[in-house]
Amino acid sequence: MPALGKLVQIEARLFLRDPMSFTIGLLLPSVILLGLGAIPALREPSPDMGGQRFIDYFAPSALVMAVAVVGLTNLPAVLATYRERGVLRRMRTTPVHPAKLLLAQMIVNLAAALASAVLVVVSGKLVFDVPMPQRPIGFAIAFVLGISSVFAIGMLVAAVAPTSRAASGLTTVLFMSVMFFGGVYLPRFMLPDAIARVGDYVPPGVQSLLDAWTGTAPAAAPLAVMAATAIAAGTLAARIFKWE
């Protein structure tokens, strides 16, 4: 455990020293939410969103960004870089097994994603009085399952990508898909209904987050898909992960 704790400290310092990881991973979702909230028209209730303000409706999509930026871009890229540079291979010859490095990376990136999500919720509430999630238990369940599925997919990319460039190519496609279906690029009420329904099941399941946020119990089917995705992708990643 002391070795793991030391690795977590080192990986956390490396994360915070990287301006791109720190700025984009931690701050960008909140900055975008606050930037949109600065537009007066987006702080007015809209019939297109059931009387909600756009800023309230968009908050769960900002959470999607908070999770996806870290889980689908930073985590796979770092692990693929470690493999490409032989870090994992060299660690196999030391008493510190490289699996501990993977665990340390997971801990640091999960903490970063959670911190980014908390910043979104708190900044939205303090600056624009964005309501807190109305069903906190349902929201917590949806968020945990959603973030687990995204990180499992990120680990799967890290398992199959031989180089950092390959990881970047795969994660770019996945990231853009998650952003699209999560209502970041275009609000979900403006998407065709069929595409919006597909988005309900695309990790991290923005509709479940939105439902719990606004006071409706999240549907069981999307939550089951998030759980199944996390288990399947995580198991597959563990089985095929290569150290070199």
TrEMBL record:
Official protein name in the record: ABC transporter permease
Keyword Repressor: no
Membrane-topology annotation of the record: Multi-pass membrane protein
Main location: membrane
Top-level taxon of origin: Bacteria
InterPro entries per UniProt: ABC-2_transporter, ABC2_TM
Keyword field contains Transmembrane: yes
Signal peptide: none
GO MF annotation, one: ABC-type transporter activity
Any Pfam family: ABC2_membrane
Domain ABC-2 type transporter transmembrane as annotated: residue spans: 7-192
Residues annotated as transmembrane: 21-42, 62-82, 102-124, 136-160, 167-186, 219-241
Location relative to the cell: Membrane
Keywords for this protein: Membrane, Transmembrane, Transmembrane helix
GO cellular component: membrane
